[in-house]
Amino acid sequence: MQYSVSKRKFKNPLEERVKKLREKMPCKEYALFLVSLKAQGTEQLRDKLLRKNYEKKEISEAIDRLTELGYLNDALFAETYFENLLRFKNFGYYGVKRKLMLKKIDAKEISRLLKGFSVKKEAEIAERVLKRSSRKTKEQLARSFQSKGFRPDSFIKFLTLPVDY
User: Fold this and answer.
1) Rounded to an integer, what distance in angstroms lies between the CA atom of residue 80 and that of residue 38?
2) What are the contacts of 53-61 at 24+ separation with CB within 8 A?
3) What is the DSSP code string of the chain?
4) Domain boundaries defined on the chain
5) pLDDT interval class at 72 (50, 70, 90)
6) Which of 60-69, 126-135, 152-161 has the lowest mean pLDDT?
7) Structure confidence at residue 165 (pLDDT)
8) Which of 54, 90, 95, 156 is the most exposed place for a label (fewest CB within 10 A)?
């Protein structure tokens, strides 16, 4: 953020201090800082640290230490993220799978989580989407369901209902 007085621009001094502190921060401290801001997986954290140009050895040590202390737990992170996607978001099977892959969760873990994601549960989420999309045509609804990653089995029954669903 910059402040301007007449035609001169002045930088925010607090913002500059924070930027300098982050640049000087050792890898372990920066990793802890990132984990304290938001829960994340090991590979996500590794990518962020690599972007900050830390050495691979330092990154491995930091991740090992955070895992040892219990601040990083990929299985717990994956489970929590999966449950939150089902509870608060409107994605179907393939949409959830894509979101989990974007978070760089292990493929085996994704498979394990998706085994419990039944067509019935997906249909409940589809019904939630349908309630919010009352003015769409059936074609628009079909495209909407497909773009959110729903399997056809979970939403096809909603498209065969009378228009005033």
Assistant:
1) 13
2) 54/27, 54/30, 55/27, 58/26, 58/27, 58/28, 59/27, 59/31, 61/27, 61/28
3) -EEEETTEEEE-HHHHHHHHHHHH--HHHHHHHHHHHS---HHHHHHHHHHTT--HHHHHHHHHHHHHHTS--HHHHHHHHHHHHHHHS---HHHHHHHHHHTT--HHHHHHHHHT--HHHHHHHHHHHHHH-TT--HHHHHHHHHHTT--HHHHHHHHSS-TT-
4) 11-72, 75-159
5) very high
6) 152-161
7) 44
8) 156
120-126, long-range: CB < 8 A, 24+ apart = 121/86, 122/92, 122/93, 122/150, 122/151, 122/154, 123/154, 123/155, 123/157, 125/86, 125/90, 125/91, 125/92, 125/150, 125/154, 126/92, 126/150, 126/154, 126/155, 126/158
Which two tokens mark 39? 């829960």
Calculate the average pLDDT of the chain.
87
Tokens found for residue 155? 């939403």
